[in-house]
């Protein structure tokens, strides 16, 4: 449909004839996200609160459809690129966010780390170099003051503020480490997301990005699980895949929205989580 036709349709959204306006809305929704820029212009030009509210609803629903489509395309892809997955999570709050912008920001962090990195170092010393750059030089750290803020689950917000929750800090750490050819992976612990350095030459060890890259052992995890009165599972010690990381980010976001009283937002994220969960299970 041409631009003139779209603008003409939008102008009929507040037609006095309810049947006409309902038909127009249905037609606009069927056109998909291409109409969003035109709807936004109409919203800015309008002085009618009722029309603005209607436009907001249409834009929101179209953006949700696009978000779901992106997430399902990612979920069904072979690659399941982690940065792309976290970008999709961030578009829940920032629908116009550019994936290329995130790639550029992470490339800069990688470059800053690469300048000080040496491949011939012992793995623990390599981790200490990454820790030094991320947590001392670039000032990444735990957002303990606003732990339940939804922004902590948005990788763009964490890249800007340098403050985040365990999973988002771990994702940034892991993306940088893997670009440096380090075998660093995510581990899905109860109540805490961590990293492991795991290759065929060295004994695996673990990294807590939420605590400035603290290095610890399998025994420390066993003690932690014991304190939580849980039965140890292999998943508490072994790397998890990118789907699990994105699922956990979505679960964190649900909790954040619920704690802030934004229950409608929480329900929307729950639907997204169901779409990429086995058997429709939300998980724990």
Short précis:
By secondary structure, the chain is α+β, with helices and mostly antiparallel strands. It has 12 helices and 6 strands.
Plain-language structure description:
- The protein is an alpha+beta fold and 284 residues long.
- The chain has two domains: 3-76; 85-280, no CATH class.
- Helix content is 57%, strand content 8%.
- It has twelve helices and six strands.
- The chain has a four-stranded antiparallel sheet. Strands 1-2 form a two-stranded parallel ribbon.
- A hairpin with a 7-residue loop joins strand 4 (192-197) and strand 5.
- The radius of gyration is 22 Å and the shape is elongated.
- The chain starts with a helix and ends in a 9-residue tail after the last helix.
